[in-house]
Structures are given as C-alpha cells and as structure tokens.
Design a protein that fits this description.
Nuclear Transport Factor 2, Chain: A, DUF3027, alpha+beta, 3-stranded antiparallel sheet, 27% helix, DUF3027 domain-containing protein, 11 strands, 7 helices
C-alpha cells in the first residue's frame, strides 16, 4: 500500500476496496479489457479523496494512465466515484504543439482572391514618420517629435539665468551693458535655426524618397525577415541558375534595378524580359544566363542537320514468329476458302 494512502488514514482493507472499485470503473470506460494495465499508484488529494492510477494499454496512448478519483465517506465506510479520465505523464506520446493556421500557412497556399490581413500589433510593422511633438514656444521643430531649444545664450555659449541675478549672485548688467552679449547670443540663435532648418530639409528629403510618411512602414525585424527569406530563396546566390551563370552576377548586369533604402544594399529587381527572373526581386550575387554583358554567338550560314525526331524513310525489317502448324486449323482455313469461292 502506498505511503500517501496511509497518510490519508486508509487501512489496507479500505485501500484494496477502493483500488478494486477504481479498476472496475476504468474497465467500464475502456473499449476492451486489455486496455487497462497494472495498478501504478494512488495519490491522496483532499480529505477523503484519492486518485487511483492504472497503466493505459490503448494503442497510440503510450505513457498515459487511467485516473479514477474516488471519495471515501469515513462514517459510512463507503467509496463513491467522482471522476475517471485519461491523463498524460512525462513519458506520454503527445500530439505536436498546436500552431495557429496563420503561422502554418505559406504564400503558395493563397490564391489571388484570398486575404489574411495584417495584425495591428504585427512586429514586422511600425508607425510611419509623423510630427508627434508640437514645437513649444522658444523651440524649433525639425519633425518626428525632434525639437531644438532656442533659449538666450551668453557670449561664452551658456544659457542666461531666468531671474535678475547672474549665476554668481551679482546683479544683472543693464540693457546697454548687455547689448554685446545679446548680439552674440542672437547670432548663435540664427546659426542654430539655420542648422535646424537644414536638418529638417534633409529629413523631409529622406521621408519623401523612402515614402516614410505612410501610416505604417516595415520595422527592422520585418526587413531582417524579408532579407533572410529572399536571400535563401530561389532568387538568391544558392539557386541553380547562379551556379550555372559562370560568375555573371546581377550586381554587374545592366538590367539590374537596385531597391531603395536598407534593402537596396543587397537586392534589386530584374528588368530583362528574356530572363526567367524578370520582374522579381533578386540578390546582388544572384545570376542567370541572360546577363547584359554576355555576347551573342556569332551568326553562321551553315545549316546543321539534326537527327529527326521521327524517321519515316528507313524500313525496319522485323522477323515474324513462325506459324504453328495444326491440322485442324489448316482444315478450317481450307473449308472457309472453298466456301468463299
């Protein structure tokens, strides 16, 4: 008798009675009697509740156990059935972990009329360029939430205190004495404003070139996954056409149109109508047999006769099998010939 059964206050007779009842319940649940194996263990759960386990012998359920939960009424000295199920253990044969259909589906599974949409929290996407922080008074905005403060600056490049005293505790000079300092600070402000404006123009130029003003753009994770998928695909350097291209890669081809942005460092689009990759994204080290620098073969006026696909000139003589001579067959043939005359 297990120790946990003893701790639950069960004597040997009560325990054996519960085990027999649990096995009977398991046999009733099973389709065949041999699907219930030997007794494994009993686990005391709550006050008076015991879980009896039996080995499962159902094909395909290796490592599983029959679990029959019984309750023992101490006053009535009677067992009652609570539940009976099949439970898995650490050695059980389990089905593979479920994967959502959206993670299992591939591009080949979709038709032109199918649409699966994009999740709002898709990690491949991030918000596009927008001015999220409005410029405050005394500051210049260069876009995308970036601002530059425009506070008065003294002649040495430091900010002037907001009060009437200086940082050393002395009284601030008069406006007339302060004029040269303010002029130097104003000049610095003009220079900073010009730099801010120039930076803003540079940012706007990049935004316009890369179309970053869209609501969502690809995140670094999205670009990384795309690069990996393209590079390892059939339009990357490991394709069969690249191996037979004899070193003529796309980066040196005149029909190679590079992409913009970060992806343009590795990929472009093929624009050769005679290439099998026409209109597809290819890597710089991809190759095919239609490179722009491959010269055409020299024209020849000689007609090279090839072997015909079907020869209807020559006659093949095939020896026929010898005829089996039988008297009955010859007699029937002679009767048929005479009847026809």
């Amino acid at each position: 008798m297990p120790d946990n059964a003893c701790k639950d206050g069960l004597d040997q007779e009560a325990f054996d009675e519960g085990r027999r009842l649990a096995r009977t319940v398991a046999l009733n649940c099973a389709d065949e009697a041999d699907q219930v194996g030997d007794f494994v263990q009993a686990n005391g759960l709550l006050d008076g509740v015991t879980d009896f386990r039996f080995a499962c012998r159902i094909r395909g359920y290796e490592g599983w156990q029959w679990a029959v939960t019984l309750y023992r009424d101490r006053e009535l000295e009677k067992w009652t059935v609570n539940d009976s199920v099949l439970v898995a253990t650490g050695k059980s044969l389990l089905a593979p972990k479920w994967v959502p259909w959206k993670d299992r589906i591939t591009a080949d599974d979709l038709s032109v009329t199918d649409s699966i949409g994009t999740d709002s929290d898709d990690p491949r996407m991030e918000e596009g360029y927008s001015q999220r922080t409005p410029p405050e008074e005394g500051s210049a905005s260069i876009g995308n939430g970036i601002t530059i403060d425009q506070k008065p600056i003294d002649a040495e490049g430091g900010d002037l205190p907001a009060g009437g005293d200086t940082a050393d505790g002395d009284v601030r000079p008069s406006d007339k004495e302060q004029a040269p300092t303010q002029s130097a600070g104003s000049a610095q402000q003009v220079s900073d404003s010009a730099d801010a404006k120039e930076n803003c123009e540079d940012v706007d130029e990049v935004v316009e070139e890369l179309l970053l003003s869209r609501r969502h753009v690809m995140s670094p994770l999205g670009r990384s996954e795309t690069s990996k998928r393209w590079y390892q695909g059939q339009h990357g350097p490991k394709s069969l056409s690249t191996k037979t291209a004899d070193g003529n890669v796309c980066s040196a081809c005149g029909f190679y149109v590079p992409l913009t942005g970060e992806l343009g460092d590795m990929f472009g689009v093929c624009a050769n109508k005679w290439s099998p990759d026409d209109g597809r994204v290819v890597s710089m080290d991809h190759g095919c047999g239609e490179h722009s620098e491959i010269e055409q073969p020299e024209p020849s006026h000689l007609w090279i006769q090839t072997e015909p696909a079907y020869d209807d000139v020559h006659i093949d003589v095939v020896e026929k099998n010898r005829r089996n001579h039988h008297a009955q067959v010859e007699l029937l043939e002679r009767i048929a010939e005479e009847a026809s005359q």
